[in-house]
Amino acid sequence: MAQPEKTQGQLVRSLGLFSAFILTVSSVIGSGVYKKVAPMSSELLSADLVLVCWVLAGLITLCGALSNAEVAGLLADSGGEYVYFRKIYNKFFAFLFGWSAFAVIRSAAAASIAYVFAHSFNALVALPELPESWASISVMGVFTPFDNFGVKSLTVLLIVVLSYNNYIGLKFGEGLSKGVTIIVVCSIFLIIVLGLTLGGGSWANFTTPATGFVQRSWTDSAFIQSIFAAMLAAFWGYEGWTATGYIGGEIKNPNRNLPLALVFGVSFVMLVYISINFTYLFVLPIDEIVAVHKSQNTIAAVVVIKHFLGETGALFIALLILLTTFGCTNTTLLGPPRLYYAMAKEGMFFKAAAYIHPKYNTPSKAIWIQAVWSSLLVFSGSFDQLTDMLVFAAFIFYGATTLGVFVLRFKMPDVPRPYKAWGYPVVPAIFILFCIALITITLVSKPREALIGLALMASGLPFYFYWNRGEKQAR
């Protein structure tokens, strides 16, 4: 007798601790490690302050990871924060997070990282452009969809190719991310060693500020805004550390392995970032790094490596940036469809997203929904506009997850916790206060990016009331 055709697959727990650690690292190390030192230098005009901001951003991110790991270990499942918020707060707040991840946070992250891949490729092989009459077309005076059209087209192609890669199986996508991440991390440490030994750098670069630098008190409001603006750039470098939570349903022993992967992953990335940015600032005077930011068409890491390894070094770092952003885009696209799948199963997202491919056991339709929206975001704005917008939105929910540590200690005091937040209650409280400060200062200093982010978050409200209508009628 013939067996009935299998029409729906299921998620499989196939990833161990090392794989979860690698996915955490690969979802974070992307474009920021190469690009963000330049806008931070332009903002602060001081090498030692730039390094301080990388350290502060790393410590704040680590506080978030140390806190959020308790929630992840307690409530581990596919869907990440969506699952957490359902149990910590309510269905509406969980939906608001899930929609924000789709509309702003994760889709914009994928678009931004893929954009840097295409931008770096364009530096090696010039991509075709549209005539100026097309490139200058503006939508509402904010968006220029046809500007840099060749780069944006390649960005979309990368998103489509890597979405297909994740469509055909988690293990294949995870294996690709693992291989790329190991090569990238080894290459970055090689750059650090060569830069510190052959780069011809000087400690004087940390004591000589850039032209135009004005010494200000740490309590000066303008100085505080500059510090937060620089840290906003650094936080883009650290962005993505929660993405491993989306695949909690596919990690072996997730209550133990998921929090360990988060804490060890963020700690390792922090070590990498501080080391490589110290090398950049040691090799080149900050005035030269500020000039990189003003030129807009160059990448700081390329200029630094070219300084002491010539054209061969510039080619090497350009290829490394391609490899890094390729791997990070893949990982960034891999996790979020599991979130949309979890929402769709509860009737709180597009129904098709609840489908699991019978052969590949992946949320295949959710993967393509994400690919389409990420591609549209590529044509909506610039790299820096996208990253500032998504970091602002992300920290709203980072703070909410950390607040959940306190809520769950009150709601579920007797439930065993595989991992308890280190430094509780001080460390979680520090992270929450910082989230509030960053959100407030971003609203003041970058209102356009913040308001666009909030508008995209709010765009999900009509969908919520539509998808929730059946539950209301049943009451």
Automatic annotation (TrEMBL):
Localisation per UniProt entry: Membrane
Pfam families associated with the record: AA_permease_2
Topology of this chain in the membrane: Multi-pass membrane protein
Keyword Transmembrane helix: yes
Keywords of this entry: Membrane, Transmembrane, Transmembrane helix
Predominant cellular place of this UniProt entry's protein: membrane
Transmembrane spans: 12-34, 49-71, 92-118, 149-168, 180-203, 223-248, 260-283, 314-335, 366-383, 389-410, 422-444, 450-467
Protein name: Amino acid permease
Organism for this UniProt entry: Chryseolinea lacunae
